[in-house]
Amino acid sequence: MRDLLECAWPAALDTARQPFRSRTWMAAMSVIAGRDGGDFARTRRLGAARFEQAVRREITRRGGRKPSLRIVRALFTALSDPAGVIAHRPGALERVQLLMEDWQLTKTRLIQAEQRMTAVLDELGLTALVTSITGLSAVGAAAILAETGDPRRFATARALVKHAGLAPREKLSGAFTGQTRLTGQGRPGLRLAAWRAVWGAQRANPVYGARYQHLTSREENKLTPTQAQTVIAAAILRHLHAVITTGQAWDPAIATHGTRPTLQTLAA
Predict the structure, then answer these.
(1) 98-125 as b/e, with b when 16 or more CB fall inside 10 Å?
(2) What is the CA radius of gyration of the chain?
(3) Which domain holds residue 23?
(4) Residue 18 neighbours by CB distance under 10 Å
(5) Residues 101 and 166 in one domain
(6) DSSP label of 149
(7) Over the stretch 135-193, which tens digit does the pLDDT of each residue have?
(8) Rounded to 5, what percent of the chain is helix, strand, coil?
(9) Does residue 240 contact residue 133 with C-beta atoms inside 8 Å?
């Protein structure tokens, strides 16, 4: 879509900071591209007020509430911009409309798939357990479990981490000691699911956030951000294994210290 618009109507891309992430921009482009074969002159004759109403209807159809009027008005103004290969606009806008329809269909199917995944978690009685890990969503946990199967089949949490290929392996040869790296073995799909879970968990979970900060700021053996996030991904797998195999909700004290602090420790 970007390539098509840069050629035929570059002004449209300047109307929003991140156009392809803006629901208003996508709805307005659907109105423009889907109306009268992308004939800008006929769309301009609607007038700004009626164009805004059409975008509001499209936003509602897509599950939104109200559009960004700044973007709507900027796009309406851009209809008069002469930059771009004007002769190619009808064909380019037709292809943009087809791409947006495919995109919307894919998003709908993704939502339906996520709903089925979380429904399976509910049926297994695992939703409350996995979401007790602060920052881990039901969808994120379901994506991981879809790759692992029943975590109880792994004797230890470390075995699950090794299955994902997230366990570190030291490179040794005689007297030579190389750099410690991940094995890279295991299920790539599981590594990807765990990696995606890191982004939400790291921001929302104070234990993971503190761990990340420590790993990237310590003086000795300081890790890069990517290396630290890999450590968090492995931690998520270990904690997911623990809550499911024990049937106990995630405990931040245990996650931090390995065990729950005793009364004597707390008193000290």
Answers:
(1) eebeeeeeeeeeeeeebeebbeebeeee
(2) 25
(3) 2-111
(4) 7
(5) no
(6) -
(7) 999 999 999 999 999 999 999 999 999 999 887 655 444 544 445 556 567 789 999 99
(8) 70, 5, 25
(9) yes
